[in-house]
From TrEMBL:
Subcellular location, record wording: Endoplasmic reticulum lumen
Keyword Iron part of the UniProt annotation: yes
Protein's job: Catalyzes the post-translational formation of 4-hydroxyproline in -Xaa-Pro-Gly- sequences in collagens and other proteins.
Chain ranges of the Fe2OG dioxygenase domain: 455-559
Native organism: Allacma fusca
Organism phylogeny: Eukaryota, Metazoa, Ecdysozoa, Arthropoda, Hexapoda
Superkingdom of the organism of origin: Eukaryota
UniProt xrefs under InterPro entries: Oxoglu/Fe-dep_dioxygenase_dom, P4H_N, P4HA-like, Pro_4_hyd_alph, Pro_4_hyd_alph_FE2OG_OXY
Signal sequence interval, chain numbering: 1-29
One GO cellular component term: endoplasmic reticulum lumen
GO MF terms held by the record: iron ion binding; L-ascorbic acid binding; procollagen-proline 4-dioxygenase activity
Stated name of the protein: procollagen-proline 4-dioxygenase
Amino acid sequence: MANGTRMESSFVISVAVCLYLVFVASCDANLANTPGPIGGSPYSAPVHQLKTPGETFQPVPYALSSIYLTDLAKREEQVHERVVEYLRSLEDRLELVKTYLMDYDDSQSNIKDEIDMNATESLINSSEVETLRALKVTASPIRSYRMIRRFAQDLRAIDKHIRDDAESLFLDQMAEIQGMHNWPSEDDTYDVMDGILRIHFFYKLNLTEFVQGRVNGTETGVKLSTRQCWNIAQFAIRWQFYTLAMEWLEVTKWKLRQESEEERWPGLSEEIVIAAERRTREHHDKHFDDQIEKRSPFIFVNQVGKGPGLPKTMREHLMENYLGREFGEDTDFSFINYVALCNGYNFQNQEEKNKLSCWLERDRHPYFILNPLKMELLHEEPYLVQIHDFIGDHWIQVLKRVASPMLERAPPRNHAKATPRTATYAWLQDEDIEEISLINKIESFTGLKVATERASERLQIASYTFGGHVGTHVDSLGSQAHLDEKGDRIFTLLIYLNDVERGGLTAFPVLGTTVKPMKGSAVLWYDSLKNGEVDGRMLHGACPLILGQKWIATKWTHLNENMFKWPCALNPEV
Ligand SMILES: *[C@@H]1O[C@H](CO)[C@@H](O)[C@H](O)[C@H]1NC(C)=O
Ligand SMILES: *[C@@H]1O[C@H](CO)[C@@H](O)[C@H](O)[C@H]1NC(C)=O
Ligand SMILES: *[C@@H]1O[C@H](CO)[C@@H](O)[C@H](O)[C@H]1NC(C)=O
Ligand SMILES: *[C@@H]1O[C@H](CO)[C@@H](O)[C@H](O)[C@H]1NC(C)=O
């Protein structure tokens, strides 16, 4: 028994190590290469029509960036207006067509009955029928008048409306609203569903509530339809996120039962969902060994078979058994601790917590005598400090304004080696933000040379939307440092540019603590040890954002220009 337990433990430890990497890396890597699982994009046709020859659109990472998502939402308001106008024009035309047909039918009805009866009885042939009908019309002043009027008015109106070409007008207007950006594509729907599944997984969202518009307790006022739940379930199945897929199928079934007959989408029935559940179980079991080898957290701890009920999920198992361990340098538990930290856990013991404090810092530079820094120590050794009100609203606005047009997805969609991340980034040179003295302030604060491209990297601005995250990593370049003419990174200074509604903590799995994003505050830590080696304790990640937006600015300063200043000038305790 004891033996069995130990074996299970070591299995789980190895599972824990790479879980996270598999999650997004495989997702990122595979999605781009595979045709869409969920049918054609409703937008694909217009996009093709709108694209004028020779014009290249920039693909925009809509689902990863709050700026593009906001922009898209604004454009959709204009698009919606045009669609409403287009509907009105369709309805007008429909009305004209109906008017014509009703008048025709009404003025012909009793002729037809009589002639048709004689035709059925083969008393007359078809060309006689035509002639007889025509004679009936011309014999009647009323019928003749109505016929002439139909040509003069009804048909002419239809003709005119068609020549007005509401379709071309509509397409032109759409192209104008679209501008140089492509509309969202199938890939963007993957990004969005990927984001939803990530917050579902990380925060163990209650799906019954989620699909009714409550996101971890916050009422958003908008629901998912049964069909949309089904689409997400299909997506989860496709990417072998089995535990999540089962939950999405379950909630799809639940939604089906809530619906009245009229609401129901005819393409889906409870039998179809149950069949999908059965297939998902079969796939789970068939790929179980594979999935364990790949260290997927999206499986159940045992095979599930055909029977009722399901065993524990791997996530539950890891959370129950591998939390709050002594950390040391060993990062084996970092993944599950990262998930726990994102959920509000803290693993610092009382002794560590007792050392934490807040103070006003005046000594670093004469500038701070009158404007002391509001420091909060979050971890003593290694040093992790949050500086409140490090920058104000004006600087924040400048940073966002300058960065907004430059935001890009990084790394590219199927870059499997990079740290899994879902956000957009911009890199600002010192000259881009000359109107604010941010670089000076960082130099005064750290006592290091930060200005110029030799001393530091460009200021990185990152923008996240829901589901946006960065997997755990260290910033130090380690053995790669010699490849960088600047030398290794000395410190990371990360500035939060807004208050975050829910989620989005910065988590340090080895330190066992998190930093809450607070507008204008900065966090500082050192990336390398004094002897130049990587400080593995500074492993950190950005927790997935649940609601709202998140903007951060990060400055990495390097060693070579600071050789004789570091480490003495920085942190006297180390
Ligand atoms: C239909 O046939 C009957 C009998 O042959 C005839 O009296 C009547 O006029 C015919 N009707 C028409 C519309 O031709
Ligand atoms: C229909 O009947 C008319 C007169 O009985 C005849 O002249 C004509 O050829 C017939 N047409 C056909 C298509 O049978
Ligand atoms: C999810 O929320 C629903 C409705 O509030 C509740 O009835 C259900 O028990 C919750 N499920 C879980 C697993 O907590
Ligand atoms: C989600 O909601 C629960 C209950 O209100 C709360 O305890 C938890 O901190 C929330 N999670 C996050 C990441 O905000």
